[in-house]
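Entry details:
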Amino acid sequence: MSIADNVRELLEQISSGNAYGEKVTLVAATKMQTPEDINRAIEAGIADIGENKVQEFKDKYDLVKGANRHFIGHLQTNKVKYLIGKTYLYHSCDRMELAEEISKRSQKCGVVSDVLVQINIGCELSKGGFSYEDGFSAYERIKALPHVRVKGFMAMLPFEGEDDYLLSLVKKMRALYDAVRLQDKEVEYLSMGMSGDYKLCLQGGSNMIRIGTTIFGERDYTV
């Protein structure tokens, strides 16, 4: 199927919302995709796109039109300056040093930056993020920074594990999201779910998914 067909099928799948009946935001993960293919996805109905690499974000910025720009990859503090004022939502705010840099750069530019607090829900050494146990306090510390607005949480499930276990991790993240949302109505996103696990994540209460392969096909890492 074409990119446009894939987008339309995905949008139809999520049109009824997640298990809570909430609207689901689809972020097209555009790592290694050409501006032409990204524009095809936007023309088919994609309203949000997410880049993993700062250089790709910069290279494609003026070549892609009509979508909210998310940054969804690991972000080095010395590269924050290239994204300020151009990024709709930072998904991977995984440490205080990064949150403080986003705050400082945002303040200098006179903007407020929206971020998600990244939680390492699977306690994996290969992934960044705050521990689940520190999730609430991390939210409070980041929220206290000037020129930063916490909009929710992001997490990635382990690539392996029984569905029941993985679903339990999504539900734990949903519990954290709900606890924070009780006292902060600016919190609105739980970003969990990629091409291989988004259906399970929606079942557990995610309301934002980051999809690449299902839209664009398998990436060719040999080029």
Remarks:
- The chain has a mean pLDDT of 96.
- The radius of gyration is 17 Å.
- The chain has one domain: 3-216.
- The first strand starts at residue 25 and ends at 29.
